[in-house]
């Protein structure tokens, strides 16, 4: 008989999760045993200016900051990358460096994008 159901065949249910749980327990025990030196090393790194170490210490000590971003506009409109005033200033700078033909070439694509938005 080939294929199909056979009693006792195949991987045992939950084997992977049981092994993963054992691995997590082992790692947790090792980290708990070395917690003092690990934290001291994080503090040393934070004092040297390591931003990631500082962030980790603050997050663990006081919890992650909850930043709320409230949008005042419910419409799903794209965010403009460059305001018209900035674009005009940019175009004047391009004209000084490259001449008026460069400005026309650089703004052609931006005008098309603004028309489509």
Keywords:
mainly alpha; 65% helix; 117 residues
Shape: flat
User: What kind of oligomer do you see?
Assistant: single chain
Helix count, DSSP H or I runs of 4 or more residues? 5
Instruction: Name the average pLDDT.
Output: 75
Helix content: 55-70%
Distance between the termini: 65 Å
Annotation, overall tally of beta strands: 0
SS content category: mainly alpha
Estimated share of beta-strand residues: under 5%
Can you write the helix and strand succession as a string?
Answer: HHHHH
Give a written overview of the molecule.
With 117 residues, the chain is mainly alpha-helical. Among the domains are: 15-62, no CATH class; 84-116. The protein is 65% helix and 0% strand. The chain contains 5 helices and no strands. Helix 2 (35-47) packs across helix 3 (51-62) and helix 4 (84-98) runs antiparallel to helix 5 (100-116). It is flat. The chain starts with 14 loop residues before the first helix and ends with a helix.
